[in-house]
Amino acid sequence: MGHEADQRAALVFTLFDANGNGVLDPDDFKLMTERVLEVAADSPAADRQALADSLDDYWRVLSETLDTNGDGVISPEEFNGFVLNPKLFGATASQFADALAALGDPDGDGLIGRGRFLALMTAIGFRPANSEALFDAFGPDAEDRITVAVWAQGIRDYYSPEKSGIPGDRLLPQPA
Ligand SMILES: [Ca+2]
Ligand SMILES: [Ca+2]
């Protein structure tokens, strides 16, 4: 695993710990679902449900796989970068990628505006400056929109340990 992928995995732990108690627990995934769905109140019900289902699945797969001491939560030690293991989590991450990107496009034209993108990324827990840089790296069109497909692929790349120099690396803390 490259250095960027290590950093991406560490950031995923911080983001998943939505309630900030230092471990991953079911409440984190409920909280993240609520925050994202609040931003996507105007998305079709099926798309909203798909996002809720994808985060439910994410927690189920994570806890079944990584809670090695069986205490019902995942510690940083238990987590330890395994989220980027494509064999364990590739399908789960891919489902989440499609569900999240779809919420960026409530009117179904296949395009996502910057404002909606930033609102969803902030709901997930990313910093606005990093999210802006990511949006720019995706190459928005003249009307400042990206496609649903580009964002979904960007999320998949983020979870692919063999990838480096990807747009998602804009989300990592930048050297001062
Ligand atoms: Ca937590
Ligand atoms: Ca545990």
From TrEMBL:
TM stretches of this protein: none
Domain EF-hand: 4-39, 54-89
Gene3D superfamilies xref list: EF-hand
InterPro entries, sorted: EF-hand-dom_pair, EF_Hand_1_Ca_BS, EF_hand_dom
Cross-referenced PROSITE patterns: EF_HAND_1, EF_HAND_2
Organism: Kitasatospora saccharophila
Lineage: Bacteria, Bacillati, Actinomycetota, Actinomycetes, Kitasatosporales
Signal peptide (from-to): none
The protein's name: EF-hand domain-containing protein
